[in-house]
Design goal:
The complex is a heterodimer of chains A (524) and B (381).
Chain A lengths: L1 H16 L28 H5 L5 H9 L5 E2 L3 H12 L7 E7 L5 E7 L5 H4 L2 E5 L13 E8 L4 E9 L6 E4 L53 H4 L2 H7 L7 H20 L8 H12 L4 E4 L7 E3 L16 H4 L2 E3 L13 E4 L1 H12 L5 H8 L10 H16 L10 H12 L1 E6 L4 E6 L8 E2 L7 H9 L6 E2 L1 H14 L6 H18 L15
Antiparallel strand pairs in A: 1-7, 2-3, 3-4, 4-5, 5-6, 6-7, 8-11, 9-10, 12-13, 14-15
Helix pairs in contact in A: 1-17, 3-4, 8-11, 9-11, 9-13, 9-14
Chain B lengths: L3 H13 L10 H4 L19 H14 L9 E5 L20 E7 L12 E4 L19 H9 L4 E8 L20 E2 L2 E2 L2 H4 L8 H16 L16 H13 L5 H15 L7 H8 L13 E2 L11 E3 L9 E7 H6 L4 H10 L3 E5 L28
Antiparallel strand pairs in B: 1-10, 2-3, 2-4, 4-9, 5-6, 7-10, 8-9
Helix pairs in contact in B: 3-7, 6-8, 6-9, 7-8
The chains are: A alpha+beta (524), B alpha+beta (381).
């Protein structure tokens, strides 16, 4: 059966591509390594690249560098220039520190200005680079920066890098090789997802981020190289009030997501365009982005997104077990370790889905109908993504008539309805069965906890789906039962196994994935 | 359990329901947000497992990343705990902190005028659930406007800890010229003072006095065997909170009562429990406390990003506003108060200042005397 075949393919892809320490060793420079290995520094026409850009870095470079792609400034001089350019007070400069962990726990410092104002702060980020081998300090002459273009409603990325310790810095105003971390994973077609800033560990306890002074850091103090704390550049960037807490960066990052997601959702206001609208719907089905949740130290508290899709919280369900967004696992027992760096559905993708509902392009009911399929797999459901792949192929082969439509928002429900159909092909009988998971007029959902359950496979082909057809109330009860069970004693090991499965998939497909600790070898 | 299907559809309906913040309409009558047949606080579930409830609280208080007991303060955040909801009535605002949303709606039609200020989910009576409307109806042009200003602050979440029994006006509003405004509304008792009866000086004093007295007089449960959970300081204080008020689920009550219990166990309370209570929570007549000051986890005067104090002229730090962006308003249109809880509530922190200079302890003999420190209110795991 094609259905079964599709699931297996997804698993194989996950196994083949992981098992190494991330993708640092990948010779293909289009793969994100957590570092930009600049190779386009000799671009001689900086002004041409900057043409039409309306972001503060472009404005700064036009004034400072003119048409030369060379500047003399290390990160400090650049930041001083940006302080002047943005009008932010020097005292608002904050450095947020994350330990990049693919090779060693080396700090990446991210600097914002106007840091007490998330909307303003998210207009500019400067980031130091990762370690490529044995650095004793942050390299002051190797950094990236992104800035919000208020006219184009997108982030522009810049790279600054010196060839030698004493040499000038080359400016790359369009470093394509850096972008792969910030857009689609490798298993999805590129193009639909805009450049999006990343904070993988978006929620408390912000694993590997400095969380002080607001909170106690998680896996930061004990992992950072103590020699680095006194290194000149690191010290200068984090001294006194400059060191910012992860909770503050979370609010800045959420503002950045608000900008990128908001800009993407404006696509629905465009004239009808099937490909554009399919791109808008894709994050509902396929995981374009991922975040990572951890237990809050030894408290057992963790985001509910670890086990239930977070978008259900936005569908006006009245159930506390989901609406609060936090859950508490049983106390950590001897021999157990709190869950750390558990992949969960990406906030950027989730907010697109929520935004389609709040902008009335879809209904909460539409969302529940999709989320009820493979709901025990809130992230990395190959089945849901396969629905999109199948459906988009059908749609592109036979596009709907849009002549009576005025905007993409008119197309959204039409395309969504088609994407909610799934074809099962049996090679033996040469028959195809089409299942419609959202039949028009029906007030039911398909409650399918786990599509890899063999009985689901059988049911989908032999027409037993009435076994799974139910009302929303029953679905909610079933999810609540599962949700409660996961908080009982002994369930941490079940979630740990799921964390490993997701971790392997993330490492294989998401170039920006952090180290997912203690998952062992992915390939069996 | 009410039909979840109804709930989902109700959610859609709420998005389209015309409300706009009509303050004359208590939400508990007009628009129960949704319902699952359960109560609106854990208090409505008499069969709840109190030990589990206290274990959950203890884990978050002592094992998490936040520091709730410091050398100067007892702290908790404004966000209500899990189980406080709007199922039948809006019961949010349980933690000596009430919150709501305010904004001026953008023009209904492109090129039109901004609307009058609306407030959403603001408490308007002494009983829980008497609140202004929760939801907005946004026209397509309003959504477009908000989307065009997606990250700009276009409204405010208001957090207030101004106790309901402390009279106004605030000093800054004794003169119209100096009186601050929020979304065009001048600071006044009607809008900015807490309303629900338990968010008061009186209630806080009662809590401290009762916890101190029960402990000092031995009228509370302690561990009966070596492995009894009640040998844990927080668990004992939490159980006492339940025995006195059944409000062990509140962050505020369980934290205050546990800290007070330890102060009492360590001989720091004295024999005049009312005097001790008024040292912690000064009387209304003294004019010393408008409400417990609001701050952030980084400090009593360090608010989270996007938030700022409303200057009241008395340094009380009892009214805080936090930005609502265009994107927030679109996303939270069915319940902006809920969005305030989610976005800021966990990081706007109530601080109870302890009169540490006046605290002297003569530790008596008792089952938990050995663990008394110079700062017994700082509970440890």
């Amino acid at each position: 059966m094609k259905f079964r075949h599709a699931i297996l393919l997804g698993l194989v892809a996950g196994i083949v591509a992981c098992g190494s320490d991330g993708s640092d060793s990948d010779a293909n420079n289009s793969t994100c390594t957590g570092k930009c290995d600049g190779e386009n520094n000799d671009n001689g026409s900086l002004l041409a690249t900057l043409d039409g850009r309306n972001d503060p870095i472009a404005a700064y470079l036009r004034d400072y560098a003119g048409d030369s792609p060379i500047i003399e400034q290390d990160y400090r001089g650049f930041l001083d220039g940006m302080i002047e350019q943005t009008g932010c007070a020097p005292s608002t400069e904050k450095t947020f520190v994350i330990l990049m962990s693919r090779r060693r726990h080396f700090p990446r410092n991210i600097v914002t200005l106007c840091s007490d104002d998330p909307a303003k702060a998210s207009e500019f980020f400067m980031s130091t680079q990762s370690d490529v081998g044995g650095l004793a300090d942050i390299n002051a002459k190797d950094y990236k920066a992104v800035a919000w273009d208020a006219t184009a409603r997108k982030y522009n990325l810049y790279e600054f890098k010196a060839d030698s310790e004493d040499g000038p810095l080359f400016v790359d105003a369009d470093p394509q090789h850096c972008a792969s971390c910030h857009t689609e994973p490798t298993n999805l077609e590129p193009g639909a997802m805009p450049f999006t800033p990343i904070m993988n560990e978006l929620t408390n306890p912000w694993t590997l981020w400095n969380a002080e002074p607001e909170f106690r850091s998680h896996r930061f103090d004990e992992l950072i190289d103590p020699d680095l704390l006194d290194a000149p550049v690191y010290s200068a960037m984090t001294e006194g009030e400059k060191l910012g807490a992860a909770s503050q960066f979370e609010s800045i990052m959420r503002s950045a997501l608000e900008k990128t997601v908001g800009a993407r959702l404006r696509i629905r206001r465009n004239a009808p365009n099937v490909e554009e609208t399919l791109g808008l719907l894709r994050p509902m089905f396929c995981d374009e982005s991922v975040n990572y949740a951890s237990e809050n130290h030894d408290s057992g508290e963790i985001s509910t997104a670890a086990i239930v899709d977070d978008s259900m919280r936005h569908t006006d369900w009245a159930y506390d077990w989901i609406n609060d967004g936090r859950m508490r696992l049983d106390s950590v027992q001897a021999g157990e370790t709190p869950l750390a760096v558990m992949p969960v559905r990406g906030e950027a993708a989730l907010q697109v889905e929520v935004g389609l509902v709040t902008r009335r392009a879809l209904t909460p009911y539409d969302v529940l109908r999709l989320r009820s399929i493979d709901w025990q797999r809130p992230v990395f459901s190959e089945f849901r993504c396969d629905m999109y792949r199948q459906g988009s192929a059908r749609i592109l082969a036979d596009p709907p008539d849009t002549t009576a439509m005025s905007r993409n928002s008119d197309l959204v429900p039409v395309l969504f309805a088609e994407l909610m159909k799934y074809e099962v092909y049996d090679e033996d009988s040469d028959e195809t069965v089409v299942w419609d998971f959202a039949p028009e007029g029906a007030e039911t959902v398909y409650d399918i906890p786990d599509v890899t359950d063999p009985s689901v496979d059988e049911a989908l082909f032999y027409g037993l789906t009435e076994d799974y057809e139910t009302d929303v109330e029953t679905l909610a009860t079933n999810i609540e039962t599962y949700f409660d069970a996961m908080q009982e004693s002994g369930q941490r090991s079940v979630l740990e196994e799921e964390r490993r499965r997701r971790g392997c998939f993330a490492l294989a497909n998401y170039p920006s994935s952090p180290d997912v600790p203690d998952i062992g070898a992915c390939a069996e | 359990m009410r039909s979840a299907k109804y709930i989902a559809i109700m959610g859609i309906a709420l998005m389209f329901a015309a409300c706009g913040g009509d303050e004359s309409t208590p939400a508990n009558n007009a628009e129960p947000n949704n319902g699952n047949g359960k109560g609106d606080t854990p208090l409505d579930d008499p069969d709840r497992d109190v030990t589990k409830s206290c274990e959950d609280r203890r884990a978050l208080v002592l094992e998490g990343s936040r520091e709730l007991f410091t050398d100067q303060f007892i702290r908790w955040s404004c966000a209500d705990v899990s189980g406080v909801n709007t199922n039948n009535k809006d019961s949010r605002g349980q933690e000596y902190c009430e919150y709501f949303a305010m904004l001026q709606l953008p023009p209904e039609d492109e090129g039109g005028e901004f609307g009058a200020t609306v407030d959403l989910g603001r408490n308007i009576g002494e009983e829980e659930g008497e609140v202004t409307s929760l939801s907005l109806e946004l026209s397509e042009d309003q959504i477009f406007y908000l989307e065009d200003h997606i990250a700009e602050p276009l409204g405010s979440c208001v957090f207030t800890s101004w106790h309901g029994d402390v009279p106004g006006p605030v000093p800054a509003c004794e003169s119209e010229e100096t009186c601050p405004t929020v979304e065009g509304i001048a600071v006044n008792e009607e809008f900015f003072r807490m309303k629900v009866y338990f968010n008061s000086n009186f209630a806080a004093q009662d809590l401290v006095r009762d916890c101190a007295q029960a402990t000092s007089e031995g009228n509370y449960q302690i561990g009966e065997s070596e492995d009894d959970a009640l040998n844990d300081d927080f668990m004992r204080g939490c159980q006492l909170t339940y025995d006195l008020y059944q409000t062990e689920w509140r962050k505020s009550d369980s934290s205050i009562c546990a800290a007070t219990m330890r102060l009492s166990e360590c001989g720091c309370v004295g024999e005049d429990f009312t005097a001790f209570a008024t040292a912690v929570v000064p009387t209304v007549e003294s004019g010393e406390l408008r409400g417990f000051p609001l701050g952030g986890w980084a400090g009593a005067d360090r608010l989270p990003s996007g938030c700022r104090y409303v200057e009241l002229g008395d340094d009380s730090q009892t009214i805080v506003t936090c930005d609502l962006t265009g994107g927030d308003i679109i996303q939270g249109q069915s319940d902006l108060k809920g969005l305030c809880r989610q976005k800021y509530g966990d990081n706007v922190v109530v601080h109870v200042p302890l009169p540490t200079a006046g605290i002297t302890c003569e530790t008596p003999d008792g089952p938990y005397s050995d663990s008394c420190t110079a700062t017994p209110w700082i509970l440890k795991p």
